TrEMBL record:
Keywords assigned: ATP-binding, Glycoprotein, Kinase, Membrane, Nucleotide-binding, Serine/threonine-protein kinase, Signal, Transferase, Transmembrane, Transmembrane helix
Signal peptide: 1-29
InterPro entries: Kinase-like_dom_sf, LRK10/LRL21-25-like, Prot_kinase_dom, Protein_kinase_ATP_BS, Ser/Thr_kinase_AS, WAK_assoc_C, WAK_GUB
Membrane topology annotation: Single-pass type I membrane protein
Top EC class for this record: transferase
Residues covered by the Protein kinase domain: 315-588
Compartment(s) of residence: Membrane
Spans annotated as Disordered: 598-638
Protein name, UniProt field: non-specific serine/threonine protein kinase
Bias type Polar residues, positions: 600-638
Binding residues for ATP: 343
An example molecular function term from Gene Ontology annotations: polysaccharide binding
């Protein structure tokens, strides 16, 4: 009996399987038969649909909540946020649906005004060549200078004027002109039509055509899991008791479903009687996951070092080059002479989840602006990561104002390269990687000041092109963390959360030049988006920011405008990181001042006490209470 207790937990499962195969006849899983309907598609008019959509005879368990379709006079209709949309096309191969506003199908001025909004945890509109247009309705008088954007409005027999404008180009001046209009709505349109709007060449007929052409959304309803399920001849659906959970329904082959349930219960009881631990916990569990990672990645996995080897290459941790909430960083040297940065994690840092996460995330990357992981060490509570050595350290130390600072050309190149690195993480990898902790402290600089994104302890891998990321609790560093990360009512964390963090970091890069030139805490207002917004809006004097030439002024204003676009409160108003790269590399004249749709804290908050925070398993970086967004000193938040 003692040897059985000490043996592998797989004995329990083996006993059950053998008993099942030897003693019981082949039966059919009758319980799956009701779910066979999930394999069938349903049609309304020209639209044929299956998972995640349901309705019209397809039971709810064959779909996903939020994807119910109805058929109205042979027209397929989807309801999003209480607004009816005509479904123009469904493409299951790309998980794309094309929609048109039902209330704008035949008229431009709807009786009831609703913005075009959707649940960003279920739909993503970023992957398509489209922009928002704003339709201003029920305006009282002709507005001078906007005649080219005017159309006639007739609501319930009442005639008035309306105006259509490309949302991204609405400046404070235009906004002041349109304030007399009672209300407006926004709606995604094809970018070609948005360009027509911007030039004032869009006719009323063009507008009607654009509204009837509709816009595209990518749905995100366990797309990867459904693909896997379909390839294994299963039927995609949802859990009958928890509809938000994905379920793959398969026809049983060879064993009674009820018998499987009974034997599974018996196996659990047997294993508990024998006091066998089915799943290891703590360091053993993390070590098991590391072993699985190495096995799955084969020769592509980074090299694993022993703790004694780590001590040797760092000369017993003699040269300390960095410190953070996660632990310390030491300079080391590999046997071949290559210099490395050894990130030694604190023994109190979590249960290994963040460590494994960082190894798995960064092992999937290869980009000039992403730090290279050369190896790791995992021996129970001894954990270390080996990175290429960055002689200039982190960007953080060049933004403090206590030493050497970077000129505008170098700052601009760093900002552009970081955006390229993020673009690679969001679009260039096989899976989208959301970093969740973009800040100056996590940007390392090589000998030529080429920036490299580091510290992937909080990163999340998204299957395929899914946008919304499931995260537990707040994730990131106070001051850089996007509001939707902790205020879930704003739509949920996504790759746009990285865009927000990037914008706050670039704002700090621009404000740091003013701090470096004045060396006075009284000028800390330069760090706040509201103050910088005013400088951009009125074309304020930037000499306090170290600007000495017209070229530097353009670089500074470009960085300011792009960062202000990135920190828009609503994630859907922020550009994708690909668009950010385009804005940084494109014509300066084409850049527009963004709307002032962001939250800021009073100036005194910058000089006050640090934000209250809790310590995540990766260090001191999670803000728990933050009603307003402020930008702290990077060395205070690291």
């Amino acid at each position: 009996m003692k040897s059985l207790v000490n043996s592998s937990p797989t004995i329990c499962a083996l006993v059950v399987i053998l008993a099942t195969v030897i003693h019981f006849p082949v039966l059919r899983c009758q319980e799956t038969q009701p779910y066979d309907v999930c394999h069938q598609s349903v049609q309304c008019g020209d639209i044929e649909f299956k998972y995640p959509f349901w309705g019209l005879g397809r039971p709810e368990y064959c779909g996903h909540p939020g994807f119910q379709l109805t058929c109205q006079f042979n027209v397929t209709v989807l309801v999003l946020e209480s607004v009816d949309y005509r479904v123009l096309d469904i493409d299951s191969s790309t998980q794309t649906i094309t929609l048109a506003r039902k209330d704008l199908w035949s008229i431009i001025c709807p009786e009831y005004l609703h913005n075009t909004t959707y649940n960003s945890t279920l739909y993503n509109g970023d992957n398509f060549d489209q922009e928002n247009a704003s339709l201003y309705n029920r305006c009282q008088d002709n507005i001078p200078g906007l005649a080219n954007y005017q159309f006639s409005c007739n609501v319930n027999g009442t005639q008035s004027d309306g105006y259509a404008y490309r949302t991204s180009l609405i400046t404070p001046t235009v906004n002041n002109l349109l304030v007399q209009c009672n209300s407006y709505i926004t709606i995604p349109v094809d970018r070609y039509f948005a360009i027509q709007l911007a030039s004032g060449n869009a006719s009323e007929s063009d507008m009607r055509s654009a509204l009837m052409t509709g816009f595209k959304l990518e749905w995100m309803a366990n797309n990867y899991e459904c693909d896997q399920c379909s390839r294994s001849n299963g039927r995609c659906g949802s859990n009958s008791t928890s509809p938000a959970l994905f379920a793959c329904y398969k026809r049983g082959e060879g064993i009674s479903c009820s018998f499987i349930g009974i034997m599974s219960l018996l196996s659990i009881i047997l294993c508990r009687k024998l006091r066998l631990h089915v799943t290891p916990k703590g360091p053993e569990s993390a070590n098991h996951q590391i072993e699985i990672f190495i096995r799955n990645h084969g020769c592509l996995a980074p090299k694993r070092y022993t703790y004694s080897e780590i001590k040797n290459m760092t000369n017993s941790f003699l040269d300390k080059v960095g410190q953070g909430g996660y632990g310390s960083v030491y300079k080391g040297q590999l046997p071949d002479g290559q210099l490395v940065a050894v990130k030694l994690l604190s023994e109190a840092t979590g249960n290994g989840e963040d460590f494994i996460n960082e190894v798995a995330s960064i092992s999937n990357t290869s980009h000039v602006n992403i730090v290279t992981l050369l190896g790791f060490c995992f021996e129970r509570n001894k954990r270390a990561l080996l990175y290429e050595f960055m002689p200039n350290g982190s960007l953080d130390k060049f933004l403090r104002g206590d030493g050497f600072h970077l000129d505008w050309n170098v700052l601009f190149k760093i900002a552009k390269d970081i955006a390229r690195g993020l673009e690679y993480l969001h679009r260039g990898c096989n899976t989208r990687i959301v970093h969740f902790d973009i800040k100056p402290h996590n940007i390392l600089l090589d000998e030529e000041f080429v920036p490299k994104i580091s510290d992937f302890g909080l990163a999340k891998l998204c299957k395929k092109r899914e946008s919304i990321v499931s995260v537990m609790g707040a994730r990131g560093t106070a001051g850089y963390m996007a509001p939707e990360v902790f205020f879930r009512s704003l739509g949920g964390a996504s790759h746009k959360s990285d865009v927000y963090s990037y914008g706050m970091m670039v704002l700090e890069m621009t404000g740091a030049r003013k701090h470096n030139n004045t060396c006075s805490r009284s000028t800390s207002e330069a760090y706040f988006p509201d103050w910088i917004y005013k400088q951009v809006e009125v074309g304020g004097d930037l000499r306090d920011y170290g600007v000495t030439t017209k070229e530097e002024e353009e670089l500074a204003r470009r960085m300011m405008m792009v960062s202000l676009w990135c920190i828009q409160s609503n994630p859907t108003d922020r550009p994708s990181i690909s668009k950010v790269v385009e804005m940084l590399e494109g014509s300066f004249e084409s850049l527009q001042v963004p709307p002032r749709h962001f939250e800021t804290s009073p100036t005194m908050a910058f000089q006050g006490t640090p934000h209250s925070s809790t310590q995540s398993s990766s260090g001191e970086r999670v803000s728990t209470v933050q009603a307003k967004i402020s930008l702290p000193n990077s060395h205070e938040s690291s």
